[in-house]
Amino acid sequence: MALDWRNFVARRVAMLFKDGDVVNLGIGLPTLIPNHIPAGLKVTLQGENGVLGLGPAPPLHEINKDVFDAGGAWATLNPGGSFFDSAVSFGLIRGGHVDITVLGALQVDREGNLANWMVPGKLMAGYGGAMDLITCAKKVIVAMEHTNKGDPKIFNKCSFPLTGAKCVDIIVTNMALIEVTDEGLVVREIAPDTTVEQLKAATEADLIIPDDVKVMTVY
Amino acid sequence: MGKLMSVLEAIEPIKDGDTILVGGFGPMGYPGRVMRAILKQTELKDLFFVANAANQNYLVALEKLLLTRARGMIATFTRPSAAAEKLYKEGKLEIIPQGTFSERIRAGGAGIPAFFTPVGFGTAVEEGKIKMTIDGREYIMEKAIKGDVAIIKASKVDLEGNCFMSGCTKNFGALMPAAAKYTIVEAEEVVKPGKIDPELVTVPGILIDAIVKVGA
């Protein structure tokens, strides 16, 4: 069965996880990722609201009102999980004990700068925990739709106020998997239904497309 | 006098102009009963709020206080909140990263006047702050937050003030009592001293001044 683009991106991101990783997932698309983590791979999910070992959402009749994720959705705790206050939680993050954070973006640029907390003159949401996560997690993965209704989201330079400077490592979209390097944005994989021309047209930033670029596939 | 009291007695010491730290991650751990009493049963004004979020749907009393009776706020996430948008336009809302928010409050209660963090370097958060390179990495200095009053919610509290906060409700409420001169805790369950396992105390009772029992 073909995956919709959101689940396609979520699954490709899940394939980047390694056994033993501690992962923090942002709101929106990243919340689909747990469904795609391969059985047998031990990935511990952290919620910056004070929890390690988040499990799947509970059935309605089993909700524990004190267990929720950082998006405010009801959650469960896997055996071996733990609860703590926000100072400990962000100590784990700032201290480099979270391996991977996955989050969405309004804009990303070729230096790995990320903007996702406000649209000048329009929308002011705030940083929440995103700024701590993208500054301090060992690996930062942006998972998003490649464009905003056709308008590019990947730029040579972000114009919105930054959430984090030079922090993004990998960008996974419905069109490509892109690595942020010192040389610029290197396209590692292109989605099966996307051409190089379409990818370039949907991206404001200059892209480096190596000869050995792969087709983006998921299991 | 014991610490268990009516909500009116508990909020009586709060003064115009006070800085109030409010616990909760969204509605979880938010002390709604005491906040409603401040809104409806006092005319306190010029209040400064320190709370993780403003939200016009879930944190209604806080939203109304922010709209008309607040001189400012420190928060990390304020959507959706018409009051926060208004304060932001007036230059009265300071948005800061959540880890910095937590640590500034923790530091305020722990006798640490300031600390260095890499979070916010290269963004608007660094503006006006002391910067330092330590062992090759760049940091900004953040100052502790202290309040006149902390208002928090616990799952269970004993008459000495020892609080147990269940699951993810510890969030900021566990940090705020030490950072404030006067702390009110609301809880659905109030028990005799000894009825909370000392190993499971989230906040030591000496930090609590007033206990308000609320309905489920």
Protein described:
The complex is a heterodimer of chains A (219) and B (216). Chain A is α/β, with parallel strands linked by helices and 219 residues long. Chain A has a single domain (5-215), classed as Glutaconate Coenzyme A-transferase (3-Layer(aba) Sandwich). Helices cover 15% and strands 30% of the residues of chain A. In chain A, the strands form four sheets. In chain A, strands 1, 2, 3, 4, 5, 10, 14, 15, 16, 17 and 18 form an eleven-stranded mixed sheet that branches. Chain A has a three-stranded mixed sheet with strand order 7-6-13, with no helix packed on it. In chain A, helix 4 links the parallel strand 16 and strand 17. Chain B is an alpha/beta fold and 216 residues long. Chain B contains six helices and eleven strands. Chain B has helices at residues 7-11, 32-41, 60-68, 82-89, 98-110, 176-179; strands at 19-22, 47-51, 70-75, 93-95, 114-117, 131-134, 137-143, 147-158, 163-164, 180-191, 210-213. In chain B, the strands form two sheets. In chain B, strands 1, 2, 3, 4, 8, 9, 10 and 11 form an eight-stranded mixed sheet that branches. A three-stranded antiparallel sheet of chain B has the order 5-7-6. The chains are: A alpha/beta (219), B alpha/beta (216). Chain A binds chain B through residues 47-51, 64-68, 70, 72, 77, 83-87, 89-91, 93-94, 113, 117, 123-132, 135-136, 161-166, and chain B through 25-28, 52-53, 75-79, 84-85, 88, 95-103, 105-106, 117-125, 155, 165-172, 174-175, 202.
